[in-house]
Automatic annotation (TrEMBL):
<dbReference type="GO" id="GO:0019878">
    <property type="term" value="P:lysine biosynthetic process via aminoadipic acid"/>
</dbReference>
<dbReference type="Pfam" id="PF03435">
    <property type="entry name" value="Sacchrp_dh_NADP"/>
</dbReference>
<feature type="domain" description="Saccharopine dehydrogenase NADP binding">
    <location>
        <begin position="4"/>
        <end position="117"/>
    </location>
</feature>
<dbReference type="GO" id="GO:0005737">
    <property type="term" value="C:cytoplasm"/>
</dbReference>
<dbReference type="InterPro" id="IPR032095">
    <property type="entry name" value="Sacchrp_dh-like_C"/>
</dbReference>
<dbReference type="InterPro" id="IPR051168">
    <property type="entry name" value="AASS"/>
</dbReference>
<keyword id="KW-0560">Oxidoreductase</keyword>
<dbReference type="InterPro" id="IPR036291">
    <property type="entry name" value="NAD(P)-bd_dom_sf"/>
</dbReference>
<dbReference type="InterPro" id="IPR005097">
    <property type="entry name" value="Sacchrp_dh_NADP-bd"/>
</dbReference>
<dbReference type="GO" id="GO:0004753">
    <property type="term" value="F:saccharopine dehydrogenase activity"/>
</dbReference>
<protein>
    <submittedName>
        <fullName>Saccharopine dehydrogenase NADP-binding domain-containing protein</fullName>
    </submittedName>
</protein>
<feature type="domain" description="Saccharopine dehydrogenase-like C-terminal">
    <location>
        <begin position="123"/>
        <end position="433"/>
    </location>
</feature>
<keyword id="KW-0521">NADP</keyword>
<dbReference type="Pfam" id="PF16653">
    <property type="entry name" value="Sacchrp_dh_C"/>
</dbReference>
């Protein structure tokens, strides 16, 4: 029986682990909170929970990996290179769901030399987005066409009936990661021009996006997701008009989070002297006023926005102007994370939703095609969230394919090769993650 070790026991691990158990693998779940690992495994005879904290016992990584055939890192992204290094030292394959960073990319030559697969970007975004994009791109290029415009949007959102707070958002994965993504730089091509976006201006680059959800045309908004331009090389295209990868939210998120960031609530450095203070006290401190009287007016004046506008209203609803006591964390982003989790988590039985949509313009010698590829997936009430399934299952499928010798391409790789994505998409569809494609010819 092949043995897999999964590092991490967070919000996207359960579906991943259950898939591997269902397909006959022994799975060790290594987590600093062993009770979470026990809950995920639920007493399965082929599951082993393990207490492990990579920040405390990094020297044990290789010892653990040596006893398994493959390691899956579902830890925060900064630990992936550490796990990858241990895998290379032990000659074991690795799967992650996160973006390939420079430190990971630097391991490519060694991985190829040792015949080790370091398979990255195997979630939903990145992951399913790559696979479904390449499915269209390879078809177009195989028919002699050229992609002249590519847009891709993806977002994890509350299902329409669970969209019941002013921010239009609830957390189905790493809350801190969601917030800090609002500080990322962006880069894209639009109207044949490359645009570079500093992190502090990210939410100024917002476009309306309409998607059919449950038979209703739903108004969303999209903003840049990091640097889109390297994907011209990854996807083997160079669309001269539009090259854009973006994040989706319900309308109003971007305007509100822009102001939250401007106040300083996304700061990652610690703030001293907060003992016994309130959220209003910290908001006042961040904008440089001496007290919390008429704080909404002072905040609006500081930001240059209307005191009775929707952004101030959202911050009032969230409690950033209220007298709630601050948690123990010191960094504003961690205080905000804890507070948002209290007010913006899913209730029992509520569904989340993943929306992924690509739009292409493909030029052929005799026609132009406008192609739309869409995935809309809902969580299962009382079961796995859509985020859990759409992030965890692609990675689990990759683990299975590697250990069953159905995929063998050593190096630092992402899921853009046909020999992987074709059977992977077929398997995901079998698991209920469905895709639709619409082609209009002009």
């Amino acid at each position: 029986m092949k043995r897999v070790v999964v590092f991490g026991a967070g919000l996207v691990v359960r579906a991943h682990v259950r898939y591997l158990l269902d397909h006959g693998f022994h799975v060790t779940v290594a987590s600093r909170t062993v009770s979470k690992a026990e809950d995920i495994l639920d007493g399965h005879p082929n599951g082993t929970p393990m207490a492990f904290d990579v920040t405390v016992e990094p020297e044990k990584l290789e010892e653990i990996i040596a006893k398994h055939d493959l390691a899956v890192s579902l830890l925060p992204w900064q630990f992936h290179p550490q796990v990858a290094r241990a895998c290379l030292n032990q000659g074991k394959h690795m799967v992650t769901t996160s973006y390939v960073k420079e430190e990971m990319a630097a391991l490519d030559a060694e991985a190829k030399e040792k015949g080790v697969i370091l398979f990255n970007e195997l979630g939903v975004d990145p992951g399913i987005d790559h696979m479904t994009a390449m499915q269209v791109i390879d078809r177009v290029q195989g028919e002699g066409g050229e992609i002249t415009s590519f847009q891709s949007y993806c977002g994890g959102l509350p299902a329409p009936e669970a969209n019941d707070n002013p921010f239009g958002y609830k957390f189905s994965w790493s809350p801190r990661g969601v917030l800090l993504a609002g500080l990322n730089n962006g880069k894209y091509r639009r109207d044949a021009k490359v645009v570079e976006v500093p992190g502090q201006e990210l939410f100024d680059h917002v476009w309306p996006v309409t998607v059919g959800i449950d038979g209703t045309e739903t108004a969303l908004e999209g903003y840049p997701n990091r640097d889109s331009m390297p994907y011209t090389e990854t996807y083997g295209i160079d669309p001269h008009d539009v090259m854009f990868r973006g994040t989706l939210r319900f309308r109003g998120w971007c305007a509100a989070m822009k102001q939250v960031a401007r106040i300083g609530w996304l700061r990652t450095d610690g703030v001293e002297g907060l003992e016994g203070k309130t959220f209003a006290d910290l908001t006042a401190l961040l904008i440089g006023v001496d007290d919390t009287s008429n704080l909404a007016d002072k905040l609006a004046s500081h930001l240059g926005i209307a005191a009775d506008g929707p952004e101030i209203s959202k911050m009032e609803w969230l409690g950033l102007l209220g007298d709630g006591p601050l948690p123990d964390e010191k960094a504003p982003v961690d205080l905000l994370t804890a507070h948002m989790l209290e007010r913006m988590s899913y209730n029992e039985g509520e569904r989340d939703m993943l929306v992924l949509q690509h739009t292409f313009v493909a030029e052929f010698s005799d026609r132009t095609e406008h192609i739309t590829s869409t995935m809309i997936d809902f969580g299962i009430p009382g079961g796995d969230s859509s985020m859990n399934r759409t992030v965890g299952l692609p990675a689990a499928v990759a683990v299975r394919f590697i250990l069953e010798d159905r995929f063998n391409q050593p190096g630092v790789v992402v899921p853009v090769m046909k020999e992987f994505y074709e059977p992977a998409i077929e398997e995901l569809e079998r698991l209920g993650i469905q895709f639709t494609e619409e082609v209009k010819t002009v």
